[in-house]
Amino acid sequence: MERLSFTYPAREAVARRVHVGVVGSGDLEVLLEPSADEDAHVAVTTSVEGFATVWKHVLDRFFTRFEGAAAIEINDFGATPGVVLLRLEQAVEALRA
Asked: Is 2-96 CATH 1.10.3470?
C-alpha cells in the first residue's frame, strides 16, 4: 500500500460531504468533504505502488476544472486513470446536486 498526498489552491467553499464509488477489484471510492482551510487536500491510499507521477497528472487535470476547498480521500484498488477521473467528476456532480 502506498499513501500519497497533494495540495491544490481553491477558490470556493465546499458545503457538504459526498461519497461515491466502492473499493473493490479495479475500482475506488472518493470521499469529499469541506476542507479545514482554504486549500484542497487529496489523500490517496492505493494498492498499486510507484505511480505517484500518474496520480499527480490525473489530479492536476481534475483541479483545472474544480476549485473547491475540499478534503478528498481516495481509496484505490487498482483503478485506471479514467476511472479515477470519472469518480472525481461523480463526486463533484453529487456535491452540486
From this structure: no
